[in-house]
Every structure is written in C-alpha cells, then in structure tokens.
Amino acid sequence: MRTPTPSIPARDYVALTNAELVHRIAGGDQRALGALYDRQVTLVHSLALRLLGDADDAEDVVEETFWQVWRHAARYDASRGSVSTWMCSIARSRALDALRAASRRPERIATSIERADDSALASPSSSPLGGVEENEQRALVRGAVAELPPEQRESIELAYFGGLSQSEIAERTGQPLGTIKTRIRLAMMKLRARLSSLREGAT
Amino acid sequence: MTHPEAQELLAALSLDATSSEERAAILAHVAECDACARELGELRDAAHAMAQLAPAVPMDPARQARVRAHLLARAAERAESAVAPAPKPAKPVAIPMPPHRLTRFSTARLVAAAAIVLIGVALAVYAVSAGQRANAMQRDTQRLLVAQRGLEREIAARDSALADRQALLDAMTGAAVQVIEAGAPSARQPSGKMFWDQMSGQWTFVAHNLPRAAPNRTYQLWLITRAQRKISAGVFATSASGDALVIAHYPLAKDSLAAIAVIDEPSGGSPEPTTTPVLVGASR
Ligand SMILES: [Zn+2]
User: Fold this and answer.
1) Residue B119 pLDDT more than 80?
2) Number of compact structural domains in chain B
C-alpha cells in the first residue's frame, strides 16, 4: 500500500517543517509521525478540550486526529492550507461530531461557547504552547481577533467554537441572516489579511 | 454557482458555517476555479488560526505518552499489514431483498415502543446533501473525513485489512447518500447508522454496542416505508465487541423511507417484525 520510507537520525526530524514531516508520514515513516505528534499535540489537545470540555473525550480526538494524519497524509495538499490548519480541521470536526452524537441537545454546544466566553482573549498566553515562535503566533492571532468589532468576533467564535451555521447564529443572536453573513465575511477578510504573515513559515 | 456568488460565501465555508446545499455548490465551483481555491485555502488558515484562541492546555504527561504509544503501535501494525496483507475477510453479506410485506405494526407504534424500551436513547436523522459532484468531493478531504467517520473507527481498529472498505466509502459518500442515525447519549448504549445511497440503492448499516443475541435469536434489520411496508434488509450477528456491518441492495424511492429498525428475531429471521426494536431511527 505504501513503500516504507527509511527513517533518518532522530535529531534531523527537529529540523523538518510540518509539511516535510507529513510528506514523510505519507511514505510510511513512523518516526515522522512521532515527531509531528510531539510538535502539535498541545495545539490539537487544547482545541479539543476547548470544544469538548472533557479530558477523556479530548484524548480520543487527539488520537483520532493523528491517526487520520497517518492514514491520509498522502492527501494533504499544501495549497489548501497549512498542516496546522489541516490538523485543526480534523480535530474540530471530530470534536463537533462527538458533541452532536453524544447528545443531540444543542444547548450543550451553546454551553460550551458560554463557558469559554471571553476567557480565551482575556487570559494572557501564560502557558507556552511550544517555542517562542508558537507564542508569537498566539499573540498575533489573539491580537487580530481582539481588534475585530465585538459583534464580528462573536459571529466567528460561534461558528468556530460552537459549530453553528450562519442561520443558527442569526437565530441565536436575533440578528437578520444577511447581517450575520456580512459580519462573518468582514471578520474573515480582516483575519486573513492580518494573519497573512503566518502563511509563509507556518506550514 | 457563479464566481461572485462563491466569493461571497468562501469566508463562511472556511468556518463550515454554510448550509450543506451552499457547501456543495461552492465546492463544485472551487473545484473549477483556482482563484477561489487559493482564497479558500487562505481563509481556512485564518479560520483555524482561531484554534490558538483556545487556552493552551498541555495534555497530562501520562495521557500524552499513552496516546503516542498507542498511535505508533497502530501505525506499525498497519505498516506490517501493508507489507504482508492479512487474509481477506469474509465478504459482508449482500442480502437480496424479499418483496415487501404488510404487518400489523404501524410505524408510529414501532417508534413509540422503542422509545419506551430505550430510555435515554437519542434518535437523530440528518441528510447528507445530495447532488454533489464526484470531483468536488475528491477535492475536499474534509468532506470525505466527515462521511468516513461512522465507519472509520470500527474498520480501522477492528479490521484494517477490510478489502471492501473503498467500495463502502463510495456507498457512503456517493452523490445521493442519506444518513439515518439511531444514536445513544452514552458510549455504552447501542447505536447504529445507516448510509442509504439513493443512486445505487445500496444500504450500508453500521452498529455498535449491541448486546449479543440470545441463543436461537438473531438481529434483523428493517426498512419501514411511509406506506407502512416493512422490508427486511437481512439478518446479522454482532462481533464480540458488539459491532455489526450489514450491506443490502434495494431500490427505494427517495422520499418513501419512514424509519429503519433493528429487531431481535428468531434465528433465520422473521417474515415480519415480531418484537419491539432494539434500535430505531426515523427518517425525515
Ligand atoms: Zn471562483
């Protein structure tokens, strides 16, 4: 099914980019999978825990996310987003799926939004995710989101962390659907522009 | 969908916040439009950068090590099976559908009875949007992952060499697949998911946590139409871990399904349902 890629000395994995690791994973390099895990596990775990609020459920999502990476590394397409994006996208849909399957009660999702409230933005990034670079990224993202008008921020947070569609957000906030669509579009355009500097290195 | 229409919706799509109909239409356009594809990639990067807003919580070290070890063991196992393929498992039974039958049960009664037996079992139905084009689907790994999710765990964990996996995926991600789900709030309760490929008429049913059937008993899968026809989709047994996979072929008009049900029956199956369902999922 895949031709095994010979592994390289352990220290060399540190120097590889995420995209290079994924390329090696696609070739069946298990040590590359271990290296990507060590590098990305905290980000994936933090997202899963934020969405699910339960350490056991988050653990499941973490394992399944990396398992998907192992299974489908060959499908990764850098033109469609960074490796982090790909992994967060897997983890997020797994987590939202688990929330929906575990209880068809929408309030659980809503609760998970309210639980977080503004804490994400209020808390300084005191616990380091990874290296200095990682912290800079966090600061950049938080800064970019904090600059958005509150109603735009609310809309994209309801979508991303609540898994709500535009119509569901409109229903929840009591705003017309057209207004929500505009807020989401404006917010994402600004975020994209502000975060464009991340795209270069952060594959 | 035109280019300007797609442009309006790319931001929402990057957050998975569109309707499934919009999603299908945008993806079909994106498959043909490099500018939109590039923009969607950038918007997805921006959307998933929001993961950084989650408070950074490192995993408990013991958990982190356990998951790592488990993951690498699974990967090693899979790499070996790729070198020396495991024996092909028995093909899942494809059961020809008998002609429909009328019974004394009404769908409403079946559903009501099941609700009483299965206290706390959540029933859910959703439809995977229809009419999507194959190339658009291939371009979107995410959509495949969503559709695969139901099967992924049991296939990957239980039988990584399942030779029919691709055919199954096709049946679950095809142009007109409706998903009927009978879920449960607890991981220990029985649950099932039906993938109905309305184009090919293939029914792929996956169940978990079913208790072992008593001696001389078996599980039987039923399709119940709005006209109260009870169509057997075959009998099946569970694995030691309570999982089951049933594949059947039966053409049924798009809007004619009312519900699916799993019912405990005498060995060999029954011409019509005789007990209350163990699992039931209503279609819409
Ligand atoms: Zn376009």
Assistant:
1) no
2) 3
H-type alpha helices, chain B: 3-14, 20-30, 34-49, 61-83, 107-117, 134-138, 141-158, 165-173
The tens digit of pLDDT for each residue in B4-58 reads 999 999 999 999 999 999 999 999 999 999 999 999 999 999 999 999 999 999 9
In chain B, which among 3-22 make CB contacts under 8 A with chain A? 8, 11-12, 14-19
Contact between B161 and B53 (Cβ < 8 Å): no
Q: Do A181 and B70 touch (CB under 8 A)?
A: no
What is the ipTM score, two decimals?
A: 0.84
Which of B67, B210, B184, B243 is closest to A56 using CA atoms? B67
Q: Do A93 and B146 touch (CB under 8 A)?
A: yes
Whole-model pTM above 0.95? no
Name the residue facing B145 among A37, A68, A127 (closest C-beta).
A68
Task: Give the chain B residue nearest A88 (alpha carbons).
Answer: B48
- Verify that B129 and B181 share a domain, yes or no: no
Tell me which residues of chain B, numbers 203 to 232, contact chain A at a CB-CB cutoff of 8 Å: none
Residues B240, B262 share a domain:
yes
Q: Give the mutation candidate from A24, A37, A45 for the B interface (greatest B CB count, under 10 A).
A: A45
Separation of alpha carbons A130 and A42, rounded Å: 8
Q: Kindly report, residue by residue over B256-274, the tens digit of the pLDDT.
A: 888 888 988 888 888 888 8
Among 1.10.1740.10, 3.30.70.20, 2.60.40.10, 3.30.70.3400, name the CATH number for the domain at A13-100.
1.10.1740.10
Instruction: Note whether B169 and B208 are same-domain residues.
Output: no
The two structure tokens encoding residue A32 = 């590359």
Which residues are bridge partners to B219 per DSSP?
B236, B264
Residue B13: inside a domain? yes
Are the Cβ atoms of B156 and A71 closer than 8 angstroms? yes
